[in-house]
Amino acid sequence: MAPRLRLLTWDVKDTLLRLRLPVGEEYSAQAQAHGLKVEAAALESAFRQAYKAQKQKFPNYGLSQGLTSRQWWLNVVLQTFHLAGVQNSNILDPIANKLYEDFSSAKTWQMLEGAESTLQQCRERGLRLGVVSNFDRRLEDILAHCGLRKHFDFILTSEAAGWAKPDPRIFRQALQLADIAPTQAAHVGDNYLNDYQAPRDVGMHSFLLMGTKTQDPFPRTVPKEHILPSLPHLLAALNLLEGSDPKH
Length: 248
What we know:
Elements: E1 7-10, E2 17-19, H1 23-33, H2 40-57, H3 69-83, H4 89-102, E3 109-111, H5 115-124, E4 128-133, H6 139-145, E5 154-157, H7 158-161, H8 168-178, E6 185-189, H9 192-201, E7 205-209, E8 227-228, H10 234-242
Parallel strand pairs: 1-4, 1-6, 4-5, 6-7, 7-8
Antiparallel strand pairs: 2-3
């Protein structure tokens, strides 16, 4: 029997919202506003290195190691500038704090094409919507500032949950919040492991958004009807799912 979906959960970054500018450009512009000249390309490379190291050393914002997500991000900014050759922490502290605030505001983010209309159509379809995102406490404000918060029944970040995708516990917590069985829920996102395989491991359905960013191709085992070339393709994919074998 085909499933009748009641809940649709969403990833946010690069699924509904993306950064307007590359991180290196944002960091470089903020440094320049504080009288410091650092090339955007150097900061972009340094950020990738600092972010990767911080995630490995302090997973999920270091919450289990006594950090706050704000401290976690301020450390990433400081390390980024250090790797780019700036050692003066006195000048970096105000830059780091301003960047933390800027990344909470709508001016740093833009909606992916079709995001608002797709969410609206999903609600009109009678679906409950929620967010399941590896993000910090700023996400609620970001979604509100971008005009998307009103579409969601709940926002579950990895900071609030205490577990980050692909840990199945964050999806189980979302299902508990909605009081909905996994077979009646689907997740939408752009990362194969976090947004496609992990929800399926708890019995949910899932869809992968191809998006525009460069990434590893999805495994060939993902059926083409589960891959969305763009967000507006979701409605047809839901129709197909609800009229077909749920094991497909």
